[in-house]
Design brief:
This protein is an alpha/beta fold and 465 residues long. It has 3 domains: 177 residues, Rossmann fold, CATH 3.40.50; 239 residues, N-(1-d-carboxylethyl)-l-norvaline Dehydrogenase, domain 2 (Orthogonal Bundle), CATH 1.10.1040.10; 26 residues, no CATH class. Helices cover 55% and strands 9% of the residues. The strands form 3 sheets. Strands 3-2-1-4-5-6-7 form a 7-stranded mixed sheet, with helices on both faces. Strands 8-9 form a two-stranded antiparallel ribbon. Helix 4 links the parallel strand 4 and strand 5. It is globular and about 80 Å long. The structure holds 6-phosphogluconic acid. The site of 6-phosphogluconic acid (6PG) has 14 residues, from helix 8 and helix 11. 6-phosphogluconic acid binds next to helix 8 and helix 11.
Length: 465
């Protein structure tokens, strides 16, 4: 008996996806490498731990693993992104047959996905790059899945991916064909960028509220009171985190304030710069993590500059309004980045569908995301939609005040403050970029366009005699 699907790599995500596939009635072959003393008998031990894996086939021998799968084979790779994927592909190739499909389910760089797909095409192997969001629990119970590659390849693996995906409110799978090449991994990368900013916004909210002398439990209670209007997975987990105690003390107070990262926020920031899209909250969130990492510098400069943080004179409602405003800007910027990439690379991405598959299973699922499914049916620019215009107009005065008060109180709020700066820039009809153009022309003869010349011709001036 050969199995229907192969899963290569039994790390946290690979294990959860394997169980998810088995729970959905698929027969699975699973493989994990054998490293003496480090990773021994991983697949067989895993099979023995879970009753749903009774019919699964477990291997640490690559050839036997590949041969145990029905042809044309479908093998999902759940290994670390980067060079490891290439090594795994090289190891697998000798055993694969023409027409087999490899599915990369890791957080791979979208440019690598395109190259791998071209390389494998030359070997008559299909390749699809699949973003998977939801962490360990999502992978087990239903993640959000973002597949990119050729439509035919997607159609071949769709029955598996759609079965294991989370379901939206209409019970449709949170998995949809994104587009060709590395578009699936691009969309997952932007998902993570939005995730970085949403996480940072909650950290800033926490910072403001704790400076206003709220305990972690008080803050959890405040965030809980926001749930009816602004629920999200990240808000939910932050409430749990703030309530967690160890030996009667809040655990959050014991956690070192140095944020790590695995690189996807970095890539999103590079992509947004390369594509000329000002997704500035993602960059601000990334740089806030980097700043946090300079712990010893922060401690030293705190003393050197005798930093005195004071209580900001803002209400909890103002904090909520500022948070919601910044979230609108964050989603606008992230979606804009996908829209521009889609146009630039001719991917034809359906933005409303992207929002739909992000309504469940993934880390950035939220009630606002559900609203965006409708908004993005009408426009690809969130800030242009009449329902959003109404919300922004109501929130704007509050965010102005919140930012001003936090600056006076010396509380760093890089993402909230960037949201209003970006918005003020984007709503300025006459920007000061005329000065930039003049400077460029002055020192580098880079030329400029004139508002009194309808031909849009480029001019150069000899600035000094
Ligand atoms: C998800 C997460 C997942 C992972 C990130 C964390 O959608 O399930 O985004 O991909 O948690 O890689 O990224 P950082 O380590 O960079 O925060």
């Amino acid at each position: 008996m050969k199995s229907e699907f192969g899963l290569f790599g039994l790390g946290v995500m690979g294990k959860s996806l394997t169980r998810n596939l088995a729970n959905n009635g698929f027969t699975v072959s699973m493989f994990n490498r054998h490293i003496k003393g480090l990773e021994e008998h991983v697949a067989i031990n895993f099979k023995n731990e879970h009753t749903e894996l009774t019919n699964a086939l477990a291997f640490d021998n690559l050839e036997a693993f590949v041969k145990s799968i029905q042809t044309p084979r479908k093998i999902m790779l759940m290994v670390n992104a980067g060079k490891t994927i290439d090594y795994v592909i090289a190891d697998l190739l000798p055993y694969l047959s023409k027409g087999d499909t490899l599915i990369d389910g890791g957080n791979s760089n979208y440019k690598d996905t395109k190259e791998r797909s071209l390389y494998l095409k030359s070997k008559y192997i299909y390749f699809i790059g699949v973003g998977v969001s939801g962490g360990e629990e999502g992978a087990l119970k239903g993640p959000s899945i973002m597949p990119g590659g050729s439509k035919e390849t997607y159609d071949a693996v769709a029955p598996f991916l759609e079965a294991i995906a989370a379901k939206d409110k209409a019970n449709l799978p949170c998995c949809t064909y994104i587009g060709p090449e590395g578009s699936g991994h691009f969309v997952k990368m932007v998902h993570n960028g939005i995730e970085y900013a949403e996480m940072q916004l909650l950290a800033e909210v926490y910072d403001i509220l704790r400076t206003n002398e709220n305990t972690p439990t008080d803050i959890a209670n405040i965030l809980e009171s926001w749930q009816p209007l602004a629920n999200s997975y990240l808000l939910e987990i932050t409430i749990d985190i703030l309530r967690k105690k160890e030996h009667n003390e809040w655990l959050v107070d014991k956690i070192m304030d140095k944020a790590g990262n695995k690189g996807t926020g970095n890539w999103t920031t590079i992509a947004t710069a390369e594509l000329g899209v000002p997704s500035s909250l993602i960059a601000s969130a990334l740089f806030a993590r980097y700043t946090s990492f300079y712990k010893s510098d922060r401690v030293q400069l705190n003393t050197l500059y005798n930093k005195q943080t004071t209580k900001p004179s803002i209400t909890t409602k103002d904090v909520y309004d500022a948070y919601q405003f910044a979230r609108i800007i964050n989603h606008h910027q992230g979606i804009k980045l996908i829209a521009v990439a889609s146009k630039t690379f001719k991917w034809h991405i359906n933005l409303s569908e992207v929002a739909r598959i992000w309504t469940n299973g993934c880390i950035i699922r939220s009630s606002f995301m559900e609203e965006l499914v409708e908004v993005l049916r009408e426009t690809d620019s969130i800030l242009n939609h009449s329902a959003i215009v109404k919300q922004v107009n109501l929130l704007k005065p509050k965010v102005n005040n919140a930012v001003a008060q936090c600056v006076l109180a010396e509380i760093p709020i890089p993402c909230i403050s960037e949201s209003i700066n970006f918005f003020n820039g984007l709503t300025t009809a006459n920007s000061p970029a005329n000065i930039i153009q003049a400077q460029r022309d002055y020192f580098g003869a880079h030329t400029y366009q004139r508002i009194d010349d309808e031909t849009e011709a480029f001019h150069h001036t000899k600035w000094i005699n």
